[in-house]
Amino acid sequence: MNPTPAPPLFSYFPAIVCTVCDSPIDALVALCVPRDEAMDLVAASWGKDGAACIVATLEGGRPVAVLPTPEGRWAACNAFLDSLAATPEEASRRLKKLLKRGRVGYVGCLQRKPIAP
Length: 117
Known about the structure:
The chain is of the alpha+beta class. It has one domain. It is built from three helices and five strands; from the N terminus they run βααβββαβ. It has helices at residues 24-30, 35-45, 88-98, and strands at residues 10-21, 54-57, 63-68, 74-79, 105-111. It has a five-stranded antiparallel β-sheet. Strand 2 (54-57) and strand 3 (63-68) form a beta hairpin. Helix 1 (24-30) crosses helix 2. The longest helix has 11 residues, at 35-45. The protein starts with 9 loop residues before the first strand and ends in a 6-residue tail after the last strand.
């Protein structure tokens, strides 16, 4: 019997930038996350290996993400988690289809933890 291959440990998603801020807390607040919840999310993400983004779901179910930019700032983004991809290249292709009228976007990365039996 062949063992089932392990799922990838990372998933990638397209994200369209709404605004860019100086801190992850400011970026979450710009996306309408209440400040106290934004501070809790940022604190919870500290010390995580490879935690390069913070993802939240707003009231009403809209997913958003805060991603670090190459310039050292934080991009507040609409996240397209329904378009999770196994590779960054696949997520980049999906992002290109979503970008219109000069919008800017990034590919976000989520680390998945295996479920212990």
